Amino acid sequence: MARQPSALPKISRPRLFGVLPRVRLFELLDERREHAVIWVCGPPGAGKTTLVASWLEGREIAGIWYQVDSGDADPATFFYYLGLAATRAGSGKHRPLPVLAPEYLPDLEGFSRRFFRELFRRLPETAALVLDNYQEVAVEGALHQVIEAAASEIPEGHNLIVVSRSDPPPCLSRIALASGVATIDWPELKLTLEETRQIAGSKLALDEDMLVRLHRNSNGWAAGLTLMVERLKRAGLAPEAIDAETREAVFNYLSGVIFEKTAPENRHVLICTAFLPQVTPTMAEKLTGNSGAGKLLEWLYRRHLFTDRRVDGEPIYQYHALFREFLLARARELYTAEGAPSWQPMRPPCWKHPDTSKTRSRCIAMPDGSTQQLRWSWLTPHGFWRRVACRRCGNGSTRCRAT
Fold first, then answer.
1. Domains of the chain
2. Quick count: other Cβ atoms within 10 Å of Cβ 325?
């Protein structure tokens, strides 16, 4: 008897322990199965992977789970591991699927079509192929071409389910126009108050007021709620401490997942723009002196990294409440009167109004038509918390020590 390949984590479905079945989203996934591709996207910790894995388990849907990583930038690596997964999922009666040899590279699309046509033929009826962490694929990665070919070879009753922090790439637009792609995104993934009650209530005895506060503080974010509940279990349930305790747990998570992995110059953009409730690319660039600030905001939005966007002429960005609180807290830590980080932004001594070339002003026009008063000293490493006015712009008699 042929020996089965070992269960590599890369091609194994995640193990689940004590997961709450999210019936509301299970039914939504049931409805979306009529589409060939289901794209589940949202911020880190939104419960995407757990949702899909628990739905497959609850509905007893067979198939293949594939963990995408940076190594899959080489399509040959992707096909190799996917072939191993197909061997594990099959009955053992078939020959191994072909590997991507160099002679097939000139016709990558044709090879991909033949590969997936045979792969789905071997899988049980109603099976699903899941690609988790698809955001690891580079924007210009060849794997997008492979997935586009795969989507065109999915037989009726089967599905390709993609779990990602990013929206579907442009290469899938042709399939999306043919109604072949269904999405489940952040507004649908957010926990409802009832789901918060079930998750938190299974671990702690909470009154309704504390449940509502947890739900408000977490804003429907599954990872945030879990961190808050675990923190409360360790620290106790003192009502006066619930906000401070839960925020510290979430801030530690955000620091490790986003902030510490960001380049220093981009951290400065994040912190400066957090002082505004809403910000446009033009405002961000003027505020930080960084010509790439607008691109960073768009990247955060596209990757579902706690940033919302609406388009009314120029795009307007807004950080999620918890993320904005975290950034402002980091500002207090990083920018003190005693010193500053080793990096310094390029900056003018005072700001001009971003929408006019008139005389210098401390007011910045907001997207909703209101104005936001900012003193330049708030937005420089040496003057963040001094709040001194600058004589040069006529907003006070005290000399601005940040300039």
1. 9-189 (3.40.50.300), 193-257 (no CATH), 259-393 (1.10.10.10)
2. 17
